[in-house]
Specification:
Layout: H1 4-15, H2 21-28, H3 32-40, H4 60-69, H5 74-83, H6 90-100, E1 108-109, E2 120-126, E3 134-140, E4 148-149
Antiparallel strand pairs: 1-4, 2-3
Helix pairs in contact: 2-3, 5-6
């Protein structure tokens, strides 16, 4: 893609330094056909942005409507779209669902314990011993001052 700075260098090399298109192409690391095309231009014209039409566009309203009512996964949305004759890929649906669905922040549970009332807490931990399915382990209170992920 030609930017304005490169266009100005190209014009200077051609008009002032009188270099040939092959020499300019080598100097600016461009294809010779690109140089020839831009030499013929009187002024710089940036490429117009094209607004693309995606395969998912006709279904976006339906996706938004469905996700407002229910917290479906991208897989469930994809299956519903296939019933509506959607021909695109799952990845396209997944990227769109991730984009419109707000990110969930990780949930943490902070446990603060008063050391005066209890010096030690007992928690249940699982073991790999076949004869004993669970064991209790005593943990000092200070270990509970760190954030613990909430499990639902």
């Amino acid at each position: 893609m030609m930017d304005y700075e490169t266009f100005c260098k190209l014009k200077k090399l051609h008009e002032q330094d009188k270099l040939k298109s092959s020499q300019i192409a080598k100097e600016l690391c461009l294809d010779q056909r690109t140089v020839i095309r831009w030499i013929q231009e009187e002024c710089y014209r940036p490429r117009k942005a094209t607004i693309g039409y995606g395969i998912l566009d006709p279904f976006k309203d339906e996706i938004n409507r469905v996700l407002e009512k229910h917290p479906y996964t991208a897989t469930q949305v994809f299956q519903q779209l296939q019933e509506l004759h959607y021909q695109g890929s799952y990845n396209t649906v997944q990227r769109y669902v991730q984009k419109i669905r707000p990110r969930r922040s990780p949930a943490f549970l902070n446990v603060i314990s008063d050391q005066k009332t209890s010096q030690k807490h007992r928690i249940k931990t699982s073991t790999h011993n076949a004869a004993q399915t669970s064991a209790y382990q005593e943990i000092p209170t200070t270990d509970f001052l760190h954030p613990v992920p909430a499990i639902f």
